[in-house]
Amino acid sequence: MAVEVDGDFEQLQKQNGVVQPLLTDLYQITMAYAYWKGDKCNDYAVFDLFFRKNPFSGEFTVFAGLEECLKFLQNFHYSTSDIEYLRKTLPPSVEPEFFTFLSNLTAKDVVLYAVPEGTVVFPRIPLLRVEGPLPLVQLLETTILTLINYASLVATNAARYRHAAGPHIKLLEFGLRRAQGPDGGLSASKYAYIGGFDGTSNVLAGKLFNIPVSGTHAHAFIMSYSTFDESKVRRLKDSNGEEQDFVSLALKWQAELSKFLGVILEEASSGEFSAFVDYAVAFPQSFLALIDTYDVIRSGLLNFCAVAMALHDLGYKALGVRIDSGDLAYLSNVARETFHNISDKYNVPWFGELMIVASNDINEDTVISLNEQGHKINCFGIGTHLVTCQKQPALGCVYKLVEVNKLPCIKLSLDMEKVTIPGRKEAYRLYSQDGHALIDLLQRVDEPPPEPTKRVLCRHPFQESKRAYVIPSKVEKLYQLYWKDGKLCQPLPTLAEVRQKVFDSLRSVRPDIKRNLNPTPYKVSVSDDLYQFMHDLWLQNAPIGELF
Amino acid sequence: MAVEVDGDFEQLQKQNGVVQPLLTDLYQITMAYAYWKGDKCNDYAVFDLFFRKNPFSGEFTVFAGLEECLKFLQNFHYSTSDIEYLRKTLPPSVEPEFFTFLSNLTAKDVVLYAVPEGTVVFPRIPLLRVEGPLPLVQLLETTILTLINYASLVATNAARYRHAAGPHIKLLEFGLRRAQGPDGGLSASKYAYIGGFDGTSNVLAGKLFNIPVSGTHAHAFIMSYSTFDESKVRRLKDSNGEEQDFVSLALKWQAELSKFLGVILEEASSGEFSAFVDYAVAFPQSFLALIDTYDVIRSGLLNFCAVAMALHDLGYKALGVRIDSGDLAYLSNVARETFHNISDKYNVPWFGELMIVASNDINEDTVISLNEQGHKINCFGIGTHLVTCQKQPALGCVYKLVEVNKLPCIKLSLDMEKVTIPGRKEAYRLYSQDGHALIDLLQRVDEPPPEPTKRVLCRHPFQESKRAYVIPSKVEKLYQLYWKDGKLCQPLPTLAEVRQKVFDSLRSVRPDIKRNLNPTPYKVSVSDDLYQFMHDLWLQNAPIGELF
């Protein structure tokens, strides 16, 4: 785990897809130079990373991105070419010894406390407390924000879709083509999975993160066939290994079902029929067809059912259909009814249970509206709105200095919401007897922790009169030590474990806080001691004389 | 340029940051198998990549991402580990020979025509025409869309900010921390620069793409100082190399200017003063200070001017200030007036011209509103809204099959806007005598191209009665051949050349089309021949009997 520095380091970083320390804002480096030049390299600083407002008009956020931050620390090192670049980019007055300082810099003096990845978190409670020499911890800011902001945003978005869809609907992430380039797409797949999705269409994400991948065919596949005769491979082995004339069988079923379903045979697309036949021959055990290329009711459903029943004759079960346009609630009801009718008429029980996948620019509101209308969809494929987080495309995490050399720092602002809470702090989550989270509490580090069954005074951080005594049944210390002495301090959970953590953590949050529309705010508080400390400091630092 | 295949290929890809072919949707691979299994590997397909609507309620789009698509083609190859992953991910019924087919696949049979990168483009005119064996060109879809959608979106967004700000304001991209992870941030920096920004805060983008980088310090830098005595390095060499007591000099100026500016000396932050001194000592030739940590008027401006005048005494010129909160128009006017007053009083001409940088959640509407209010800002730092494209976080490029084996394909839809224009097509831009683009014209490939000074009939693609004769002064063929026989067909422009192309291409677009509010739509048209071809095909394929 110790940070190794050698000539191949840069190559190693690239190979591992690890984020490089130059992925930062230039001002971090100019600040580091000013600290170095000003002899402040040994000043000991504490930064808090937190956000001020939950995204998507919601009242919770899922914390994600920690593992990538820790990998960034493990590999933190400026390569020779980084130093060369900085040397020619910074003003010529910058002293050469600064570049020696930079090239020797590693994250070994950083101490990082964090809430475990996958925890549900709330405004103002820091997710990370980063400590160490001032220039070094300052240099980490942008990269850490980059790694956490989008990860947490998309995990939260995914959790909201999961909440809207309910636990029994399959959710698939289809957003690669609308993401912020290749890596934006990969991050989206990874963190949507953590937030509660079941899989992705993104094959590389599947390979890299071991996420289930999913997909069948596009409209282009259907459109590339134009006639009945186009299936060159007409035969398919049945489940006993005997070759059968699959095209004739499917044509027979098409004629039969067109009568049963009351669909005009001539109006069904013959190209679509051929495409379905070829797809079924390729995937007899997992046939799932896109049925809206021409017309769901007058073509796609008939052709699908004909091919699926022909598969049934050969001993195979089809998977289902995907609908990518039109009135999804209505079409899913028609499809389900059709499947049930065929199931009953031909005594094929599984036919009624075929999967119905819906896609087409679905967002959270669509899911809620479809639920209200009543639908028979089993699976949503969600792309653009999930990965771009259209409702709010950025989470505003900030990284604020709260202490230098044991002296607290406070950022004042005319906007009370923007005042920072100074000093090193611990955070606790207090639980009620029914297992639900009651309130989060920030304290100064040297205060005794709250204890179960003992009364604790929780104060609103800014409003003097808002105070409450809470008697927790359980107290959870939110921060764990993740990084010290250049080493990870505990093994990191797998992706699946983080996903489970999100699930468990969300379960501990009251339903009214999680609901998609007009949720109840969760309370975050400070101890009486911290309240006094902060407000005294505020008064000391705020100039008198401003008209209010 | 030829595609080399060897054991180190995967490593090579990673080293070059090249996008891998597994960065795609799974359905591309299942479709490829169905094509392979259905003996359609030699079917010759033509796909068009286009969008249907300009982003941001605008009437133009900047095309970007082509170079990355070409690099993707150059390196298109499934590695051994890719094949292993696919083998265990696809159903066991998939025949082993398919994986041999995949592992031998390169992009040598792809033919790619495109509009040059940086060209201003409009809805429905394909940006790319991709031809080749059906499974191969199908396999490219998602990756190419991923590479073009966000690149074009952010380049267009940047061009809109440039248009709103005017040509003389400096625009800096500050969005890394709010982008979709590391690579989202890099893409944002690159394509914002192409779209007309002057630089970025993202150091890695500067290193990789040779984009100017910019930045000074954050509020944390100021907050890390609390007293007057905190500058440990009190001395600074003047421009003649003589050491001077810089702190005393700055303190003298602070006292002097507090009287001249009517600011109460005791109310100015002493920590801020120390921070400015240390920053000026570090960067005497490029001192730019963030002046809103405590109070712009009652602290930041005074402290900045004191340190800047002390620098002046030592023979240095300061650069200016950054304001990151509050009423940016008002504060910039106050700052400019202060600078002018000092310039006049102490006869320091450059002081009146100090740069004023504004940041803080600026979007296109903010820029327009600031212009209306009147401001003295020279430079905007723009982050979140630029990189997330908050107004519209995805461009809806699609990749549609338009021809297979010389037979045209048409995607019908009840929504007329979603009908595709079938067949292989050429695109032309017709110019008026004053050099402005008049109209874009799509034709079938075998039609003679329009000629300057000759009348050409341009038809609305869908509305029969909308037709116009146009006599162009100049005709530009929009597509160039970029890739054939596994090779690039022409040298690629540098980033700076693409940026210049955006500038030139935008200049050829009429101002009313480019304006930010309620712009005039640019006209795109089809030839009479293409119109007939398309509508005949439409009638042949659309079922009769739908109630309208």
From TrEMBL, chains A, B:
Entry EC no(s): 6.3.4.21
Pfam families linked to this entry: NAPRTase (PF04095), NAPRTase_C (PF17956), NAPRTase_N (PF17767)
Keyword Disulfide bond carried by entry: no
The record's account of how the chain is modified after translation: Transiently phosphorylated on a His residue during the reaction cycle. Phosphorylation strongly increases the affinity for substrates and increases the rate of nicotinate D-ribonucleotide production. Dephosphorylation regenerates the low-affinity form of the enzyme, leading to product release.
Pathways per UniProt: Cofactor biosynthesis; NAD(+) biosynthesis; nicotinate D-ribonucleotide from nicotinate: step 1/1
CDD domains xrefs: NAPRTase_A
Nicotinate phosphoribosyltransferase C-terminal domain residues: 424-533
UniProt cross-references to SUPFAM superfamilies, sorted A to Z: Nicotinate/Quinolinate PRTase C-terminal domain-like, Nicotinate/Quinolinate PRTase N-terminal domain-like
Function: Catalyzes the first step in the biosynthesis of NAD from nicotinic acid, the ATP-dependent synthesis of beta-nicotinate D-ribonucleotide from nicotinate and 5-phospho-D-ribose 1-phosphate. Helps prevent cellular oxidative stress via its role in NAD biosynthesis.
Protein name: Nicotinate phosphoribosyltransferase
Organism: Cordylochernes scorpioides
